[in-house]
Structure formats: structure tokens, C-alpha cells
């Protein structure tokens, strides 16, 4: 745990910087503005769902539990007619940003913690800014970007959405690398 003693300042600073950059990306930058769109006939869909409201959770439609069920003519017909999709239902209401922001900051701290761990054990103290930047940049970009690839592969998240998030993740990773390089123990 020596790395925590040596790297707590860049660890916390980089997490806060990534948190601020994320907030700016989602509130001020234009690239996420058209990432989400309404469902056609949203009011009718919401009315139908209100008639039998699902509790918060993840859902797939049409639902089946075993891949062999795709051979069942009824399931196959539902799949062919569509729509086919994945839906996440959250609790009703406006929602509180506080807990979500706290979780986002904890995520950034977790990334910075793991980046610090890898960096300390791979480099140790006394290395140059560019050595730190190169390794920490690679590890932090991987952390922020690659974790979301399966969402596009398995759950149909549009690849355009992935690339927008990858752009954000690369920026977070480069800033994380810069902070660690700047504050690395010499």
C-alpha cells in the first residue's frame, strides 16, 4: 500500500479532474446532445406500460430464458415481427443528481486507484513525466473506454454512442496521465 502514501494526491486530483471533465462533456459540449431520441408514439407506449407498470430493472423483449427457445415458432415470430430490444426502467420521479454524482466520483476514484496501483508497480518513483504519462495514459484510457464496448456488442448500443463515449474516455485518460505525470514522486 506504499503506492497510496506516495500517490494519494495525483489519485484524488485525477479523479476530480475526470469528474469535472465528465460533467462538462455532458452539460456544455454539443457531442452528446443528439445521442438519445424519443420513441415514436411515446405517449401510447407510456400509457400501455402504466397499465402494467414494470418495477425498476433490466428487461429484454421479446423475453425468453433459453437460447433454444428461438427455435420455438411463437418466439421466432415475435423476434421477426419486432421490436427487439433492451429496456432499463428506473424509479419514477425526477431523481436526485446527488447520489448519481457521488457514484460517478467513486467510479473515477476507483479508476485512479487502479491506475496508481499499476503505475507504481510498473514504474516506481523517480521516473520522467513522459514515462508516467505513457503508461498511465494507456491504462486510464483503457479503463474509461474499453469497459463499455460490450454494451454495443451485446445490447445494441449504437456504435456512434460508443465512439462519443470513447472520445470522452480518451480525454479523461489523457488528463489523468497529465495529472499523474505532473504529481509523480521524483
Observed structural traits:
186 residues, two-stranded antiparallel ribbon, 65% helix, elongated
Q: Catalogue the unreliable spans.
A: none
Whole-number mean pLDDT: 94
- The radius of gyration is 21 Å
Termini separation (Å)?
A: 18 Å
Q: Helix fraction? A: 55-70%
Form type: elongated
Class by SSE composition: mainly alpha
Sequence of secondary-structure elements:
HHEHEHHHH
User: Main sheet: which strands, in order across?
Assistant: 1-2
Strand fraction: 5-15%
Note the main sheet.
2 strands, antiparallel
Number of helices: 7
What's the total number of strands? 2
Explained architecture:
- The protein is mainly alpha-helical and 186 residues long.
- The chain has a domain at 2-37 and 95-183.
- 65% of the residues lie in helices and 5% in strands.
- It is built from seven helices and two strands; from the N terminus they run ααβαβαααα.
- The chain has helices spanning 2-27, 42-51, 73-81, 97-123, 129-145, 149-155, 159-183; strands at residues 57-61, 85-89.
- A two-stranded antiparallel sheet has the order 1-2.
- α1 (2-27) crosses α7 and α5 runs antiparallel to α7.
- The protein is elongated.
- The model has no long low-confidence stretch (mean pLDDT 94).
Short account of what is shown:
The chain has 186 residues and is mostly helical. The chain has seven helices and two strands.
Topology:
Layout lengths: L1 H26 L14 H10 L5 E5 L11 H9 L3 E5 L7 H27 L5 H17 L3 H7 L3 H25 L3
Antiparallel strand pairs: 1-2
Amino acid at each position: 500500500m506504499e503506492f497510496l502514501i506516495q500517490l494519494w494526491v495525483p489519485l484524488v486530483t485525477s479523479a476530480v479532474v475526470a469528474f469535472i471533465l465528465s460533467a462538462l462533456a455532458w452539460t456544455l459540449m454539443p457531442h452528446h446532445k443528439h445521442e438519445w431520441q424519443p420513441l415514436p408514439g411515446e405517449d401510447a407506449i407510456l400509457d400501455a406500460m402504466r397499465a402494467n407498470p414494470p418495477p425498476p430493472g433490466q428487461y429484454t423483449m421479446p423475453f425468453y430464458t433459453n437460447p433454444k427457445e428461438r427455435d420455438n415458432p411463437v418466439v421466432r415470430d415475435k423476434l421477426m415481427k419486432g421490436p427487439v430490444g433492451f429496456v432499463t426502467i428506473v424509479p419514477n420521479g425526477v431523481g436526485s443528481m446527488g447520489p448519481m454524482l457521488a457514484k460517478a466520483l467513486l467510479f473515477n476514484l476507483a479508476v485512479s486507484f487502479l491506475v496508481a496501483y499499476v503505475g507504481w508497480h510498473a514504474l516506481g518513483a523517480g521516473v520522467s513525466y513522459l514515462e508516467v504519462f505513457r503508461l498511465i495514459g494507456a491504462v486510464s484510457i483503457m479503463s474509461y473506454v474499453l469497459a463499455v464496448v460490450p454494451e454495443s456488442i451485446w445490447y445494441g448500443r449504437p456504435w456512434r454512442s460508443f465512439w462519443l463515449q470513447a472520445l470522452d474516455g480518451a480525454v479523461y485518460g489523457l488528463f489523468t496521465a497529465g495529472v499523474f505525470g505532473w504529481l509523480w514522486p521524483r
